[in-house]
Specification:
methyltransferase, alpha/beta
């Protein structure tokens, strides 16, 4: 298997890379992967992940909920209830930040198509792209969505979209800097780029360490903090216009993290830890388990 070796920080170009925790792939393989961080800017990433062309098998498990519709088990049931609530919240956020009720939207990494469908039903013109053929097939069967493969990103005209969204997608993308350049080209001059990612400087990340479910190696290649994603955006001609915590993520991530630790009553223990994380983020939103970042082009 070909693996990706990162010798220079993709954020600042620094070559002083420090080894950090070793994390386990609890979903698909049981393999262990090293986290590394840049000694100059602090950006953290997973070292030695399979290259993009070969990582597909690490997604092929019914437990990987991002691309499935299972409701098996208490945690998955909770996930689906919360997702239903969050779809409305995300839609309202896009309209508020884009300063428009309707417009042209690109949803990158749309998964099974729930958010793209929610925006279509609100009158937006939506293009959606997704790498997984299984997820594209689900979106077509469930919502009638013609989701395009990832390669279609390079076929859209410059300035085509008033809003571009990536909901827990950026952390998966191997070609990080290339993606940011492409997104900037596709976004209209007054458009808005909305990116949601896990927060590696969150309360629950510190609490669980190598068992933190949002490290999700090797599927998650990049591990952002508010500081590093802002630096990355600035490098590619964006300014951060707003940031919003995702408080519900702490509960689900904590439940999974307890499960990874082999805890009994992982649901209840995760619920307790998620509550602590919730209160922690009330006073310091940059400690939220996941964050939504709103970016605009620099003028």
């Amino acid at each position: 298997m070909n693996k990706l070796t990162i010798n220079a920080c993709p954020l600042c170009g620094g070559t002083h890379l420090k080894e950090g925790m070793t994390c386990t792939d609890f979903y698909a393989s049981g393999e262990r992967f090293q986290l590394c961080s840049c000694g100059e800017c602090g950006f953290t990433f997973t070292q030695g992940v399979p290259v993009e062309a070969e990582i597909g098998r690490y997604y092929e498990t019914p437990d990987y909920i991002s691309h499935t519709d299972t409701r098996k088990g208490m945690m998955n049931t909770v996930y689906h209830y919360v997702r239903s609530y969050m779809l409305g919240r995300k839609a309202r956020l896009v309209m508020k930040e884009a300063h428009r009720r309707k417009g042209r939207l690109l949803d990158v990494g749309t998964g099974t198509g729930y958010f793209a469908d929610a925006m279509l039903r609100r009158g937006w013109k939506v293009e959606a792209v997704e790498k997984s053929p299984q997820a594209r097939a689900f979106a077509l069967e469930r919502f009638g969505l013609e989701v395009k493969p990832e390669a279609a990103l390079k076929e859209f005209a410059p300035g085509s979209f008033d809003a571009i969204t990536l909901w827990h997608v950026m952390e998966h993308l191997e070609r990080l800097n290339e993606t940011w350049e492409l997104l900037r080209e596709l976004l209209a001059e007054r458009g808005v780029l909305i990116v949601a990612v896990p927060n590696a400087s969150s309360y629950d990340a510190a609490r669980y360490g190598e068992y933190w479910a949002a490290y999700d190696v090797p599927r998650h290649l990049w591990h952002f903090t508010p500081a590093t994603i802002q630096q990355l955006a600035s490098r590619h001609g964006f300014i951060m216009a707003a940031r919003h915590p995702m408080p519900f993520d702490a509960f689900y991530v904590s439940m999974l993290s307890e499960k990874h630790r082999g805890a009994s009553c992982s649901f209840l223990k995760g619920l307790y830890a998620g509550t602590l994380a919730w209160f922690s983020a009330l006073g310091h939103k940059d400690r939220s388990s996941s964050m939504i970042y709103v970016f605009r082009k620099k003028r």
